[in-house]
C-alpha cells in the first residue's frame, strides 16, 4: 500500500539521494514519491509463502528471488517501484546494490488501495522492461491469481487461476519464465481469505 507523503516534484537523482537517507521506503512515479506502508497479514503471509517456495526451487539455478525491499528501476528516469517479489536471472542483478534492472518475474500481492494502480499504470511501466516475461497479481482477499505472460509475439496473455488451471479442482500455478509450479493451496497456505 502506498501513500503520497511528499508533494514537490523530484528528479530521479534527487529521489535516489533523498530516499537513501529515509527510514522508510518510497516508490518514485512521475516526479512524486510515495511512502510504502504496511500491508495486511494475509498480504504478508502470501508473499512469504511464495518467496519461500521460489527460494527453494531456484537455488543453484542462477536466478535470485528478492522480496519487499528490492527496488525495481524501470529506466534511468524512473519510475522506481518496490514489488512484493522480484526474480532476476541476470548476472548484472546478482551484484546490484541499489535496484533490480533485469527482472524476469515480478509479483504484486494486491490490496484494495493499490489494486487499480498495480493492474494499470504500474503494469504499463513494468511492460517496458525487456527481460520481464511474467507479471503475477495475487489477490489477498480471495483465492485468485492473474498471471500476465509475454508470448512469442511480445503480446501479453492473461492466465487467470484457478479458472485457467489444467485442473480447476486442484489448481497449479505455472510460471514458465523460471520453470516453476506450485499449488494455489501452497500460495494461500494458512492465509485467511473471504472466498468467492
Automatic annotation (TrEMBL):
- Domain Putative restriction endonuclease residue range list: 13-175
Which CDD domains does the record match to this protein?
DUF820-like
Q: Which InterPro entries match?
A: Nuclease_put_TT1808, Restrct_endonuc-II-like, Uma2
Q: Which domain of life is it from?
A: Bacteria
Q: Which Pfam families match?
A: Uma2
Q: Which SUPFAM superfamilies match?
A: Restriction endonuclease-like (SSF52980)
The record's listing under Gene3D superfamilies reads: tt1808, chain A (3.90.1570.10)
Name listed for the protein in its UniProt record? Putative restriction endonuclease domain-containing protein
Amino acid at each position: 500500500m502506498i501513500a503520497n507523503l511528499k508533494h514537490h516534484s523530484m528528479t530521479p537523482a534527487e529521489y535516489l539521494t533523498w530516499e537513501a537517507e529515509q527510514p522508510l521506503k518510497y516508490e518514485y512515479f512521475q516526479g512524486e514519491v510515495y511512502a510504502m506502508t504496511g500491508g495486511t497479514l494475509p498480504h504478508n503471509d502470501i508473499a512469504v509463502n511464495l518467496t519461500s517456495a521460489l527460494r527453494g526451487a531456484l537455488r543453484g539455478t542462477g536466478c535470485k528471488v528478492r522480496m519487499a525491499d528490492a527496488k525495481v528501476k524501470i529506466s534511468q528516469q524512473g519510475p522506481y517501484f518496490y514489488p512484493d517479489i522480484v526474480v532476476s536471472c541476470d548476472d548484472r542483478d546478482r551484484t546490484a546494490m541499489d535496484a533490480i534492472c533485469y527482472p524476469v518475474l515480478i509479483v504484486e500481492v494486491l490490496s484494495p488501495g493499490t489494486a487499480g494502480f498495480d493492474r494499470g499504470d504500474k503494469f504499463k511501466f513494468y511492460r517496458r522492461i525487456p527481460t520481464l516475461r511474467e507479471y503475477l497479481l495475487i489477490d489477498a482477499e480471495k483465492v485468485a491469481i492473474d498471471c500476465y505472460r509475454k508470448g512469442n509475439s511480445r503480446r501479453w496473455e492473461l492466465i487467470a487461476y484457478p479458472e485457467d488451471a489444467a485442473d480447476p479442482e486442484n489448481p497449479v500455478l505455472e510460471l514458465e519464465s523460471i520453470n516453476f509450479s506450485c499449488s494455489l493451496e501452497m500460495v494461500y497456505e494458512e492465509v485467511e481469505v473471504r472466498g468467492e
